[in-house]
């Protein structure tokens, strides 16, 4: 902690640190509990030399099997975040990036150890809290307003369109083969995961590889994206102001990446709560897609969404990420994905139809 204190004092002249505390894990105790993350952030509260109260967050990364096993992977992730957070409207700012030396000091990249990332703090509750409440108590007008806000935000974010074809091809390649993508996610499944036998995962993987060849030449679809737009990275404060965390994958790629990252969670948060889909989560799923499609006119997204949806479903069904999902729920979601991958386009079900 002393090295962190020194960093704050160097970065903010005259800083007086008031509090340092690790940010806790997800407190949800149902099937949507998130058990795994890529590091343990530390919240730092201090007063700067002008006496102003400030709060920042100190991030580190740890080695894992999801494409972060090399130090270079973890360093790349931090530098990429620093380089791209500013490209995403409403995203927390990246304030500094550096490395942890072998002796524990924080310094520049020469003669270094592990990377770190410093960001600003954003007040707010994760959108996942809203989805849990809707699953338990039903939808409200505020929930409808928020999903409309999210659809409008994504429609505006997903511009400009087009760019170098190799950039889109890389987004597709990373979707399929990256450590955080489909290959890496499947490799992270235990062999005895109920509802996700190795043979089933192998068949899913093969279908997704086939999709790569259907997507590689869709370079005109390239757009600015968030890259990890799931409900734990989406915050709303008490005034309903939207803030975002942890943009990823270079903030450029396929709009279906963001749409499916959010949309799959309406299904996921409903799957182990009988009646939750018709109580409101189905309406929100439908409203997100309809709002985005109306704002963009991009119905082609339904033709390319299947493998992106498969990837996000493999995340929420992975016991290492969400260990409390029921075997029945995992089987239902994967069965739905299998049907989507076999169809010519994703069908946006009505609010009364349950996709799985």
Structure overview:
It contains eleven helices and eleven strands. It has helices at residues 2-11, 71-84, 127-137, 141-157, 165-177, 182-187, 198-215, 255-271, 276-296, 301-316, 327-342, and strands at residues 16-22, 42-47, 53-60, 94-100, 106-107, 114-120, 125-126, 223-224, 234-236, 242-244, 252-253. The strands form three sheets. Strands 1-2-3-6-4-5 form a six-stranded antiparallel beta sheet. Strands 7-9-10 form a three-stranded antiparallel beta sheet. Helix 7 (198-215) packs antiparallel against helix 10 (301-316) and helix 8 packs antiparallel against helix 9 (276-296).
| Strand order, largest beta sheet | 1-2-3-6-4-5
Report the portion of residues in β strands. 5-15%
Distance between the termini: 47 Å
Helix/strand-derived category reads alpha+beta
Unreliable residue runs: none
| SSE order | HEEEHEEEEHHHHHEEEEHHHH
Query: Cα-atom Rg, whole angstroms?
Result: 20 Å
SSE topology:
Layout: H1 2-11, E1 16-22, E2 42-47, E3 53-60, H2 71-84, E4 94-100, E5 106-107, E6 114-120, E7 125-126, H3 127-137, H4 141-157, H5 165-177, H6 182-187, H7 198-215, E8 223-224, E9 234-236, E10 242-244, E11 252-253, H8 255-271, H9 276-296, H10 301-316, H11 327-342
Antiparallel strand pairs: 1-2, 2-3, 3-6, 4-5, 4-6, 7-9, 8-11, 9-10
């Amino acid at each position: 902690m002393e090295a962190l204190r020194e960093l704050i004092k160097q970065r903010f002249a005259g800083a007086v640190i008031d509090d340092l505390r690790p940010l806790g894990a997800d407190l949800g105790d149902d099937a949507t509990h998130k058990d795994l993350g890529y590091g343990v952030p530390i919240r730092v509260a201090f007063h700067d030399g002008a006496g102003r109260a400030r709060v920042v967050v100190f991030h580190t990364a740890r080695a894992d099997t999801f494409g972060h096993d090399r130090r270079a992977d973890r360093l790349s992730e931090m530098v990429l975040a620093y380089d791209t957070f500013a490209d995403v409207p409403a995203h927390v700012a990246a304030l500094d990036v550096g490395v942890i030396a072998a002796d524990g000091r924080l310094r520049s990249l020469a003669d270094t150890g592990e990377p770190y990332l410093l960001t600003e703090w954003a007040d707010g509750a994760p959108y996942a809290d809203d989805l849990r409440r809707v699953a338990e108590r039903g939808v409200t007008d505020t929930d409808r307003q928020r999903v409309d806000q999210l659809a409008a935000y994504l429609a505006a974010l997903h511009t400009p369109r087009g760019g170098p074809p190799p950039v889109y091809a890389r987004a597709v390649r990373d979707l399929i083969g990256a450590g955080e993508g489909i290959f890496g996610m499947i490799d992270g499944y235990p062999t005895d995961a109920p509802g996700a036998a190795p043979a089933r995962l192998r068949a899913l993987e093969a279908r997704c590889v086939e999709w790569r060849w259907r997507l590689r030449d869709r370079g005109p679809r390239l757009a600015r994206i968030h890259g990890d737009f799931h409900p734990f990275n989406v915050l709303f404060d008490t005034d309903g102001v939207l803030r975002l965390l942890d943009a990823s994958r270079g903030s450029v790629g396929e709009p279906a990446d963001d749409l499916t990252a959010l949309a799959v969670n309406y299904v996921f948060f409903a799957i182990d709560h009988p009646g939750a889909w018709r109580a409101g989560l189905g309406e929100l799923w439908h409203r997100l897609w309809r709002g985005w499609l109306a704002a963009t006119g991009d119905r082609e997204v339904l033709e390319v969404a299947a493998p992106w949806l498969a990837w996000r479903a493999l995340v929420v069904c992975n016991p290492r990420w969400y260990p409390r999902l029921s075997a029945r729920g995992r089987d239902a979601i994967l069965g739905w994905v299998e049907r989507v991958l076999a169809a010519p386009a994703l069908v946006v079900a009505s609010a009364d139809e349950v996709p799985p």
